[in-house]
Design goal:
homotetramer, Tetracycline Repressor, domain 2, HTH-type_TetR-like_transc_reg (chains A, B, C, D), Arc Repressor Mutant, subunit A, DNA-binding, mainly alpha, transcription regulation (chains A, B, C, D), TetR_SbtR-like_C (chains A, B, C, D)
Chain lengths: 195, 195, 195, 195
DNA sequence: AATGAATGAGAGTTCATTCAT
DNA sequence: CATGAATGAACTCTCATTCAT
């Protein structure tokens, strides 16, 4: 499209590009510092631009969040098939993939909360995550289920929301290790053996 | 005292009591209808009193939430020893107790969220729950661990926060069954058997 | 108490009353100075109160405008029947009533504009004026038409809007005498005599 | 149309012309659709140019409005002497001329409002209309006054503003017939006959 | 000469909390 | 003691206008 090494961009996109990058960097910093609910003004100030600029580039807050984290989400999505193909047991692949997902969530202050929120501003964020990652997770689950390594009754959506929930507030409290609990949850997915 | 015909008598105690009860009822109703984040004004309106009255009785929102749910929290706390004494396996006792806790959380719109929030207004709510229920849970965990039925590395605080997190948003989405996930988490607590 | 002239108002309304009056005075002043579109904040500042106070008393801008001018609108409405009963010709009564209406409009900076605006914020203002004054005007027109002193094809609504329109911008420009034009319009209402 | 192959030729003049015409067409369309207050951006989008281009060609909104309607204003201006010369009574000539003016105003959504507004952006529009049309109207009025067919005390400026005002909002409300009221106003210009 | 990205003032609105009555 | 009016900070969103490319 933008062709090969991508050059076709019409003239002065270079500037806008750079500016957008500045915006994304500032937003990322602001999200880290104050969570994804940080006031738009703060991000603008951080970036040294006017609020209008942010609204131009990202009409809704969710658009901004998506843009900030798109690469990492993509990476997470692509890791699913790779892990399945890498030769370990399906349950192990699932566990590792979930681990990547947790990595992502726990390092993003407030992202897990936003994913659960039914706030209108985050509906598109919600949709983006679901559309991109649920199928990946579903594939992992199905494979593991087919191999008899996880119970069949849990669906990808439910599992991901559960993991997302477990990550809420992680990192704010040393007594709470989200990753450990997620590990237990994944362990609990195994079919019960007879006593 | 305030019975009979008494008017000038020191009737205030009874009056205040009744008033406080009205408040608690109204708050309970408002919490159910709109979650624990419901505007203070709405609760006041529901109770037919001024907002000032609420602030007088319950300086912080958390105080109000605590008061509303104190009975149920108490019941939950007392159920712990009872379950342990009732003869089942320690793991089963733990599972049943967690179930009670989930019952409580999922029927209280927004309570799970409030428990995780680090909002200053909820700090006392936080403390109350922790002080009352963590020891109970810890006792159950220890007993089960001593019997070799759960891994020893999980602490009560962590487990309860995990369960609380899993309950966030429960009931708002038919595709998400918090109780099932909690069940998996509890199942995951069991020590790994050799393959 | 608030007894005396007997006014069942419950207790401390006295204060709120006074405050509301302050608000109305400030709003009237602000309307005069900057028109009825003056920002809510400015009115609040003028009155020395917070913006919230204005929203509490008058949820919409139109409510405020109505309140400010209600007395004068009432007076105008009541003058209609009085003029009819006062013995002059019906056309003269109509002319004098329109004059009162013009008095009102031209002394209120921007009110005439607001009456024409289809801005949602003014819909209730619109309705108030129409409901109150159109019937009064209609009565005057009918009487004059029955006496053969005005053409029958003009309706009260149309006439009032026409007069309102003529008053737009009156007082801002010494070369424009709205009252004279209104006079011509009313004169033009007379049936044509044969040449 | 970009014609032949010419690229480096001194095409700018033609280019600029065409561009300006595109702008005027787009503005006319936008004015019709949303009134003369339509956001500058919308016009630019309609024309397929940047907002800067509009500002370059027409520094103020009024300049744009003037340009869009210049032809019709010219036509209106030229019709005055023609009507006077066409042999009818001076009052009839005035009436017909006013009719042309109304034609113009009522077909231009929001133009009448803009003419009255004291918004700085419309000062030049104001001036243009006045400079061009007031003398024409004055001539018609004087002629009719000299013939004893209209009262002498009304000035052209006043009359035109009155007519303009009566046209505000015309077409938006079926109960309001601006043309009828204008007709009454013009009729009211006749000197009073003795009773 | 054209572009459209950036600016930033300003409007409306909400609600936790205080305090005079 | 109860009341609820008042406060005002905080937030979102919209454009007219400027200016670097």
């Amino acid at each position: 499209m933008d062709s090969a090494a991508g050059k076709a961009a019409p003239r002065k996109r270079a500037d806008a590009r750079r500016n957008e990058q500045t915006l994304l960097d500032a937003a990322a910093a602001a999200f880290l510092a104050s969570g994804v609910d940080v006031p738009v003004r703060d991000i603008a100030a951080q970036a040294g631009v006017g609020v209008g600029t942010i609204y131009r580039h990202f009409p809704t807050r969710a658009d901004l969040v998506v843009a900030v984290y798109r690469h990492q989400v993509e990476a997470c999505a692509e890791a699913g098939p790779a892990l399945l193909a890498s030769g370990g047991s399906p349950h192990a692949a699932l566990a590792r993939w979930i681990d990547l997902f947790v990595d992502f969530l726990v390092t993003k202050h407030g992202l897990a909360e936003a994913l659960q929120s039914d706030d209108a501003a985050f509906q598109s964020l919600h949709a983006y995550f679901l559309n991109r990652l649920v199928p990946v997770c579903a594939r992992l689950l199905e494979t593991a289920a087919a191999a008899g390594e996880v119970r069949p009754e849990v669906h990808a959506y439910e599992l991901m929301r559960g993991v997302g929930n477990l990550c809420i507030g992680a990192g704010r409290d040393p007594r709470y290790d989200a990753r450990r609990l997620v590990g237990l949850l994944i362990e609990g997915l195994r079919p019960t053996r007879e006593e």
